[in-house]
Amino acid sequence: MEQRVTEQAEKLGTIVSIWAHPDDETYGAGGIMAAAVANGQRVVCVSATAGELGTDDPVAWPPERLGRTRRWEAAAAMAVLGVTDHRFLGYPDGGLAAMDPAEPVERIAALLADVAPDTVLTFGPDGGTFHPDHQTISAWVGAAWERAGRSGRLLHAAMTQEHLAAWSERYEQWQVFMTDERPVGVVEEELALRVHLTGADLDRKIAALLAMHTQVAPAVALLGMEEYRALNDEEAFVEAR
């Protein structure tokens, strides 16, 4: 019998969930974080940027306006998930790869040393969509985890082969990939964690995502709510190599 998400989350202990932009964490681990909070576990969520460049219409949404709005949206999403400790590192959206990694790695290592998590969640090396910010935060977290003495398990978000087989065409229509590269799906045996959200667990994740209207509205318009829910009902991770 497949375990409930609350039972799977319980095994993760204290969680630090580190991502590049607000909404990354909810897409990648919203169900897991919410279940952990419901269990009484500590969850610290970190966004490297405010996502101030995340628009196709920078005239209507200049960076200052969008960054401010996305912070509000993230606060609403965290309230839905129950996460009360959400931190912004304040780095420039779209600019992580150009930064000297020394300061952010040291800063993240200090956070890990302070929180002493049992589990760290972040992107894998491909960043999921090959976004340079996603890839950079993955590298920073890996280096910080090493510097902090490998505090807890480091888990990388991954897409399963089944998920890609079902949704790759829709991802292309959604234009989520940033390069000509595409993720290689993992088989179930390689997964360290995989949850399927149903019922109230999925409702809560979707409600959190919908709170981030500036980011999710185009996807919902493209897919329709039924497909959008189905696309987001799985969260999967592998052990960092």
Automatic annotation (TrEMBL):
Gene3D superfamilies: LmbE-like (3.40.50.10320). It comes from the Bacteria. It holds the Pfam family PIG-L. The keyword Protein biosynthesis does not apply. InterPro entries: GlcNAc_PI_deacetylase-related, LmbE-like_dom_sf. Keywords: Zinc. PANTHER family: N-ACETYLGLUCOSAMINYL-PHOSPHATIDYLINOSITOL DE-N-ACETYLASE, N-ACETYLGLUCOSAMINYL-PHOSPHATIDYLINOSITOL DE-N-ACETYLASE-RELATED. This is PIG-L family deacetylase. It comes from Dactylosporangium maewongense.
